[in-house]
Each structure stands twice: as structure tokens, then as C-alpha cells.
Amino acid sequence: MQPGxxxxxxxxxxxxxxxxxxxxxxLQSQLGAKRYAMWCDGKIRLRVExxxxxxxxxxxxxxxxxxxxxxxxxxxxxRTVLGPSAHVAFEVDAxxxxxxxxxxxxxxxxxxxxxxxxxxxxxxxxxxxKPSDRTSGRNGRATAESQTAPGHAHxxxxxxxxxxxxxxxxPGAELALTAARQIATAQPVRFNPLVLCGACGTGKTHLIExxxxxxxxxxxGLNVVLITxxxxxxxxxxxxxxxxxxxxxxxxxxxxxxxxxxxxxFESKRVFQEEFLHTFAELNDHGRQVVVTSNRHPxxxxxxxxxxxxxxxxxxxxxxxxxxxxxxxxxxxxxxKRMEGEYAPEALSYVAQRxxxxxxxxxxxxxxxxxxxxxxxxxxxxxxxxQVLADLERDCMxxxxxxxxxxxICGLFGVKPKDLKSACRARTVSHPxxxxxxxxxxxxxxxxxEIGQHxxxxxHSTVMSxxxxxxxxxxxxxxxxxxxxxxxxSEVLSVLEQQLLAG
Length: 503
Hints:
Elements: H1 18-31, H2 33-39, E1 45-49, E2 52-57, H3 60-82, E3 87-92, H4 94-97, H5 118-128, E4 143-145, H6 174-184, E5 194-198, H7 204-218, E6 224-228, H8 229-242, H9 245-252, E7 257-261, H10 270-285, E8 289-294, H11 306-313, E9 316-320, H12 325-337, H13 345-354, H14 359-376, H15 382-396, H16 402-413, H17 417-420, H18 427-443, H19 448-454, H20 460-476, E10 479-482, E11 485-488, H21 489-502
Parallel strand pairs: 2-3, 5-8, 5-9, 6-7, 7-8
Antiparallel strand pairs: 1-2, 3-4, 10-11
């Protein structure tokens, strides 16, 4: 949108949303006043929902015409206002063809094809009649998805973004929620970036979507971009292929707020890491906010470059733990209220107790109960919940083996399996070995002798000694050195357990 440009004063078939006004102004800028007046002003109705722009037109043949002639313009206008992840859908709006579209200043707007000559109308109808170009839907409602950014499939509707107000925070997630709310007010904060880290299903994506949605409500003029690390990489790859890197960088390095989900994807991908590092540096230097999510603490992203990790650590790192029982009960109760069916409080409490790992497991269990209610029409009691979820519980059980413990220990501490089984007494090997024995005793069904035999043919007393030593570390709140950083033993064990339970 050109500086100083204001939205046209004439009535439009649209809502009063500032985002809609900005998109109309962008369309006028790209099409010019004459083409905009002929095809858009009063002829279309725009609707924005999260990152999707829906364009309503007056008839099926106009739908085909608009797609062919103006789809790329609509997409560009949407991405300019809503961000690079925006996409566009077209639909037939019967009220426009009847001339009943509402405008800002008059209840009845112009007829959708007003101003067209009879010859032009006939040409449009002929074009729409071609079988290869026809797009129709049920009840006379035709829709078509525009070309989308990499990572968005054709014909896939935009999902609704989560709300911050719907997030139920456990004690371990209150800091993350507070930080998210501060950013969502669009007021300057002292930390940049905000890094939300935690295991799958702990609420990271919920928070980052909530920030995006709230910012678009309180500051519609802000250029807020919500994107996954994979989609960012796909954009970059396409820009390399199309020789459009300057446009790519202009698009991402001029946003007001950049929200990137699952930055773990950048691990072992040096080229993407470098591009994102420069993007972040540019935004940070100009006071633009960045928020990222990750399944692990930045220090544990061992395959990210040191420059990027240090940038993450320079901001605010908030860890989200699995919700405790009280929080899970609140989450289950809140989700059950939005579902069809009648559920006994005991049944909901049973779900919260039996699925402690993450929120997605709770949602899956509730979906099973709702399906049972749909089949039977009977209130879901605790007894019914036990019966329905019995198979699901068995499927969710995670059997941890000694080899699994060995794998996560080696991955975190950078040692080899043969080192754990060797006679080496160096701290870099003996400490991981003791932690492995401690976790093996806690999380597997192996006896002391089996654990000792696995880790180098040691006897059961060695394993018992290692268990006592780690317990002493926990009581003394001791720390261990990992990758030049000091970590508390309790935090190390928590990370290892999460990795084991996640598989």
C-alpha cells in the first residue's frame, strides 16, 4: 500500500474490519483506480479469518473470472496485509448477485456486475461454461482455494487459531503465559526473542497461535506472521529456485512480529539456519519481536549453530512442563463443556488421572468418550470410561528398554555406547553412566543385575551405588556440566525422562 493512501470512500460489500480496509486499499494500489472501481469496489465482499482471506463474488461465472484474472493480485494483497502465510479462497455470495450487499454507508450496495457491458457479461458466461474451468459446490455455493504458499495444500481450509484466554496454565507454564500476554498487548517488552520450549502437547503451539490472534485483534495494522520452521524453509528454497531472494528477505525482514513454530526443524540444516539467523538479527536490530517454539531447551539443540543458540539464550526462555493432575482436570472439564454429550465428573477425573503425558492424549481420550455417547446416547460414567478407554490405555503405554535409556544418555552427553560399558572412570563417562543406571532402575523393569550386566558386565552393588549417588545429587541440588553449561541434575533427569516417554 502506497504511503498516504486511504481506502476508497465509496461503499463496499465488506465488514468494517481495519484489515479489510487495508486489503481494499492494497487492491486499489495494485489494480489502479479504474480497474478497482470496475471489479472490486462494491462488487466483492471480503472476510478475514486468521490467515485466510475469503473473497465473495456475485455468481459462478464471476468466480471463475476473478480467479483467472485477479487471483495473484488477491494473494499478494492478502500477504502484504496478513503476512506471508496468508492464502485466499473464493466463494459465491448470493446477496451480491441480488444487489443486497451491505456497505459502510448504505444498506443496499450496487449489483455485483454493475458497469459491465452485455458483451462482456456474455463473454464471462461463456468462459464459465467450459467444463474444465467450472468450480461448483453443494447448494449452488462454489468455492476455490487460491494458490498457496509452500506448506499449504490446495483446497485445505485455514484452521482456527487458538486463543490465549483458553489456555489453562499449570504452575510450570505460568511464566510462559505471562510472557505471551505481554507480547500480545503489542507493547514493547525487554526480552527478544521469547523461546517456548517443552515436550509435545504441552501448549507451545497454543500460546504462539494465541499471540498471533490477539495481536491481530488489538493492532490490526501490525504485520504479524505466524509460520512453521518447515514452511520458512520451503519459502526460502522456492526463492532460491526462482531467483527471488531479495523479495523473500524483504517479506520476512520487514514484519513487525515473527512467530516461528518448531525451530527444531532447522537442526542439521545449515543453510536454513544461516538465513533465519540473519532474519532474526535484522528484526532484532530494528526492535521487531520474534517468538519461537522448540521441543527442547536451546542448549539441547546440539545441531544448531552456536550463533543461533546464543541468540535464543539472549531472550527469555520459558519451559512448559507436562500439566499436573489439577491442571489436567481443569483442561478436561473445559474441553468436555465444548463437546456434545453428558459426562460424569468421575469419568472426567479418570481421564485426567490416566493420561498424564500431554494434552493431546487427553483430547484423544475425550474423543473416544464422545463417540461412545454418540453411539449409545447414555451418560458417560466412570465405569463406561474405564471400559471405553481400556484399549487406548494399552496403546498409550510406553515400554522403556535398557537400550532406550542408553540411547538418550548418549544423545544428551555426546558419549558412545561403548564408553558407557567401558572401565573408564572419567567424569565425562562415569556421571552419564550413573544417570543411565538410575533411570534404568526407575523406568524399566530390569533387576539390578540385568542393569549392571548391560552397562559393561558390572555387578548389582555397582548399580545400587550409582542409584544412591544420583539420589544424593538430587537432595543436594547438584549440577552437571553439559556442553560448557551447568545444569541441575533434576533438570537433566526431567529432560531425559521426557525424551524416553516421548519415544
